[in-house]
Sequence to fold (441 residues):
Amino acid sequence: MAARKRILLISATTGYQLRAFNEAAARLGVDLTFATDRCHMLDDPWRDAAVAVRFYDESASIEALVESAGHDRFAGILAVGDRPAVLAALAAERLGLPGNPPAAARASANKAASREAIASAGLPAPWCYTVPADSTPTAAARSARFPCVVKPLAMAGSRGVVRADDERQFADAFTSLQRLLARPQVRAERNPAHEAILIEGYIPGREFALEGILDRGVFRALTVFDKPDPLEGPYFEETIYVTPPRLPDREHDSIVHTISAAARAIGLTHGPLHAECRVNERGVYVLEVAARPIGGLCAKTLRFVGAREERLRPERGWGPASTKNDVIGLEELLLRHALGESVDGYRREEAAAAVMMIPIPRRGILKSVDGLDEAAQVEGIDEVTITAKIDQTLLPLPEGASYLGFIFARRASSDEAIAAVRDAHARLSFNIEKQIAVVPL
Fold:
């Protein structure tokens, strides 16, 4: 009996996104070996047999991964998150598996480095510069033009990103980001990228995201997401993603072409790709190209349909070959690709799909959620999932790094899917109590 194939999945500590990969692996009959930045002092605290790694200690982490490979080679490597993508590139290089060049993975995880690569390739890009994170706001603003955007080099989900229209707003935004970067949880990451802050020109226009895949240098767009809510600042909290995008074919193709060129400029060659861009009359401005899939539960919006061949089994012997539609999620698609299978035969389903990342309206402690049954009954709603926990302290953007939950919808058109998630959200009520400040005696 042949041994089951193994895939190495590198991520931050175990979460709901990894559970989706685990379920997909079970359907495929492959084993996952997790590598996470879990506490290495405890014996398997999450009961997932994960290899303990430290993203700030790449050498020791790679040795741990090589040791975990043992005599049974991994069939492939995947990463969930920007810093895990860097470690995955290093591990792929060491283990002789397909992956991105480590230098490209590093550039994709650093907004300043990716900006430089994209601009050097002659693609549309805003003016930008970096300053040390301990600069004074006055010194940091000396080269700024307004409106501009102040942002960290290595945080996802628009965390820490603030628009400034004048010097006073710039000082407030810069000071706020300095406080965020100085937090113990952030400092504990030991990420050198947190030692600098990026200042860049504000780019007007509509915002889109792209989910794609690279196969040894060949780029394929899996889908383009429209972001129907205006993202004009001062904060850039993403709420709704919908696909297919409400775009003419020419503009859709321009997004795909420009992001493909940006991925080449950064040097990415193999694996999942998540990109963000803004589109205006001057062209497509690529905001980021990450060497990882879309984060959180948003991947649930994507279903892919492909025809597979199977043989009927009558009472005696095998019957003639037939085809059957095979519907899989993004996680299974990526696992198949990591195994070396071709996924060219899969296409996104025809139905429009939307997800709302439920925003946190204000800081406080979550006490209750009402209206879940009513929201779930809205026509077209697939699922309403609250990921925040009761009695959890909620922190909105730009400081926060999470959402209250997710609402998923499928309808015949993108406009209908957008309307469904908005309707469901309107039926939800969140009881958030104000935090009581504790003054030391």
